[in-house]
Amino acid sequence: MTYQTILFDIDNTLINSADLIAETLQKGAAATGVNVPVSEYRKRIGRPGDEILKEFGVTNWKQVLADYMVEFERNMDQLTYFPGIEVLLSNLNELGIQTGVVTSKDQVRFARETKYFPLIAAAKIVTTSDLTTKSKPSAEPLLYTVKMHQLDLEQTLYVGDSVYDMQAAQAARMDFSSADWGALPDIEFNYAKYQLARPDVLLKLI
After folding, report:
1. How far is it, in rounded angstroms, from Cα 102 to Cα 69?
2. Where does a domain end: 32, 47, 78?
3. Based on the structure, what is the number of domains in the chain?
4. Could you tell me how far CA 151 lies from the centroid of its own chain?
5. Which residues constitute the domain of residue 111?
6. pTM of this prediction?
7. 105 and 193: one domain?
């Protein structure tokens, strides 16, 4: 099928970042006495950090998130695009297909992190978590994006690595493709229209 617009999640879809996020959040929470295995944090990447911390009972989550921002930024030189992502984004733009991101990062985090990733920073379609009242897995971020940028819902595809991305697309009735190159191996993407092993396979679909 030909899509006019392809929207992407960022963490572990475009950027190989989920492990660093999980480890940094876990370290910050553990310093306050909340000891949850890092694997449990990794399973929840795709949701806002405050929601994850609250779920695990971190009461001073605001301070933990503030410390997280400092620690994460200190280690951002470890982050990279997944192989093939830069070529994929460039080729989609050359084909005249709109691209954008719908992320659980707020605007401050988005600006800080994407300065290292100019292809993402230059996206004309950006929906951050603080632009909507609900975050993924709610449909609201995707539907907000469709409305604000006057997209054709039926010709828009969302690509993400987590079950929360899939659930958001399902709730919005938007086509969804899993980014299996960044997803945990045990996730069942039962709603996904496509399950892609590599970024370059997406070009073959369109």
Report:
1. 20
2. 78
3. 2
4. 20
5. 5-16+80-205
6. 0.86
7. yes
